[in-house]
Amino acid sequence: MATSLRGLDAGPGSLRRWILIYFAALLLLPPRPNLGYNENYTEPVCGTPWWPDNLEESQHWPWEASLQIEDKHVCGGALIDRSWVVSAAHCIQGNQEYSVMLGSSTLHPNGSSWTLKIPVGDIIIHPKYWGRNFIRSDIALLCLETPVTFNKYVQPICLPEHNFNFKVGTKCWVTGWGQVKQQSSAKLTPAPELWEAEVFIIDNKNCDSIFHKKTLYPQVVPLIRKNMICTTNYGEDLCYGDPGGPLACEIDGRWILAGVFSWEKACAKVPNLSVYTRITKYTIWIKEQVSHGALLGPCRTSWLLFLPWLLQLPVSL
User: Fold this and answer.
1) Exposed end of the chain (fewer CB within 10 Å): N or C?
2) What family does the Swiss-Prot or TrEMBL record give for this protein (predicted)?
3) Domains in the chain, please, with CATH?
């Protein structure tokens, strides 16, 4: 017995119209957020740094992102999902057209087939961001117009659970295109090659005490707050760091984003201290924004342009 379509006004034209509406709805369905998880969303997929064949080069950090304006590097960032990059809120300079470069350790790749350059479709700054004097809630999310395909050169870094505790003394790595001085002038320019440095997490109270020695703020006013994480380095000079760049830590074989570079102690001052936005304090917020963005499809609104066209196609056979 044939199924009746009378309730749907099942003439030939109406049937075709329902088919068009069905396929239009499929196109509008946003992808499920992929915050460092594989296709079945059960096993974490955390990127892993690796060395190029030329061992003289530094490691390749596959989540490293360069936030750019008109092909000029302005800040670092970290890929956390096929469509999302996390960076520092103070990097966002008003109503600018941003793009993100992925898959390269040099700011000026020459014909590299694995380097991606993707426009930014949407930017979400944390509502409690405060950029005066000592920055607070210095975190922003950038939604890419086109989702990336993970490969050897482009991989996400995993987010920590909101209740995870990065212990004092944990060894981590900071990467970025930090500012360097040109020999012929005092002008600072981004380093052409990605640099990396080993750092260690220190206690917030000790970090706060050191910063207070160089300020007029009373001790009762904390400069290093719970939503920040502080590191030190006992060797290389980390002056002129790359704002928005990732602080990555290997925990039980997985690479996790511990912080986003925010600000640092004055150059040439020992010890070298750097302050990051503590990601664990924003893990829930990040997941909420990514899930909300996936439901609304803020970076895929171009599909809406096709809906009127689909619905206005001739329906007679």
Assistant:
1) N
2) Belongs to the peptidase S1 family. CLIP subfamily.
3) 11-30+298-311 (no CATH), 64-296 (2.40.10.10)
